[in-house]
Amino acid sequence: MSDLIDVLSKFSVHDLARMLAERIEADSQSTFKNRHDLGGGITLFKQKGSSRWHCRVHQPADGIHDYRQSTRKLDLRDATSEAHQIALMLKIKLSSGVALKKGITFKTIANEIVQFYLKRSKPIDTYYISLIKNHLLPYFGEQEIASINDRSVRLFWNKYCETHDAPGKSLANSIHIVLRRILLEAKEQALISSIPDMSNKVETKNIIKGECWEPNQIKTIFDKLTKWQSLSPTNTDRVIFNLYCRFLYLTGIRTGNEALGVRWDDLKTEKDYYLKVRKGKMEGTIKEGREMIISRSGQESKVIIEVMSPLAKIQGFEKISEAKAKAPSQCLFELKRPAEIWRSFADEMEVEGTLYWFRHTYITNEILRGEPLAHIAAQVGNSVKMIERHYSHATMRRIRTAELDRNKKDK
User: According to the 3-state scheme, what is the secondary structure of 147-179?
Assistant: First the structure.
């Protein structure tokens, strides 16, 4: 305080009065620029950090009490017109016996964010949209956006865990990212004043990266797949699913869109045989369209013999070359929801793991075989750094095996 007094003492009373007047004028101009009283209980205002005008309608005589809504307009004249239309629509609704909603619903803002993601169209946006539609809208959809608080988020996760296993950290974080994006939009529209705290709202499960099967386990799994397939011999999906699992195991391709998106014309039969991967997680990135080798020097490989040739015959072609020529845009695997098929098989045949374990097993086996990490990374569409971080168990196992082999030779 004494420092402030020392500073002020350097100015004359006249200068201090002038500075105070200038400050008051600046504040009043700022307020005037961000708030306009249109009369009749209608006010336009801008929330801090927002470029759009919002309106407040307060006409107690007509039954309208402190109703707030974004005009979604940047221009003051457009916003003025929109505000009067909003006020008129409120009167029409009341005169028609329609009760006014107390506030905008979560669904309204969520749908705006869906449109935002569709327009932005980044690779991750389809996933974010699915989180909104499959998780957030079923629970929050009809709730008032202004009513969502810390407790609401915690209750959402409580409800989720009643019908699902505890979410992984990645899923929980992704849902929180999308929920926060929706609530930030609501805040910008002056519908809420703060964002709920998303931390410590759900106990996430620890997912061990790089789970894989040993060779004897892989043999048992494919034996069980063959037996499961024979239990319903007319079910073509089971036949194709068996081949699908072999494809995942032999190539390390990602299950889902990446594997399901492979078409016959993605097979490149030059000196080496390659499959071009266009869909899935890498779509829209520099790794989109990577070439995954399936046969060196054009020789017959397990991918060709055990997967692609049987698939061609199932689709009515004698050879792979005929499938490429006559049905270039047809997908190799015409399966719906392979993850659900796997769960059905795994439950019935008592198998541990998920479809993603085939990829982990492939990467682990390639490391144990001594393949350079750069080659493995190019094949599976990962970075060397990621493989080093998540598959260190395989690297250490290979080092120990090499040491044991050297010790045997020394003896």
Answer: HCCHHHHHHHHHHHHHHCCCCEHHHHHHHHHHH
